[in-house]
Amino acid sequence: MCYYKFIPHWMSWEKLVAPKIHGGMGFKDLSVFNLAMLGKQGWKFITEPESLVARIFRARYFPSGTFLTAHIGHNPSYVWRSIMRARFIVRGGAK
User: Nearest-CA neighbor of 44 among 85, 94, 95, 9?
Assistant: First the structure.
């Protein structure tokens, strides 16, 4: 018996993430959503510098500077590298 007939034909990812009004399924592009959330965390480092998370990251990664001038540093955590990848979003919004 051939099982090939029962395998669904998948749509392209571009079609899945397109808005429903444009014929897509309206799924969120998770990589873009993830970058937005990481950028939001970076923005909180600037706007809420006395929060616990901001103080911990500042002490470890940018003790004498700001988030926008910080470097990745030696042996960074996965979270810090991810937040630094999204820093361009914060720079674009902080004018």
Answer: 94
Q: What's the domain range around 78? A: 28-93
Is there a contact between 61 and 69 (Cβ–Cβ < 8 Å)?
no
* Alpha-carbon torsion, ordered 51, 55, 56, 59, to 10 deg: 180
pLDDT at 30: 86
Is 21 part of any domain? no
CB 87 within 8 A of CB 68: yes
User: How many independent structural domains does the chain possess?
Assistant: 1
DSSP line for 10-44: PPPHHHHHS-GGGTS-----HHHHHHHHHHHHHHH
Each residue's pLDDT tens digit, 50-75:
999 999 999 999 999 999 999 998 89
Instruction: Quote the distance between the C-alpha of residue 48 and its chain's center.
Output: 19
Kindly report the CA angle at 25 between 28 and 5, in degrees rounded to 5? 120
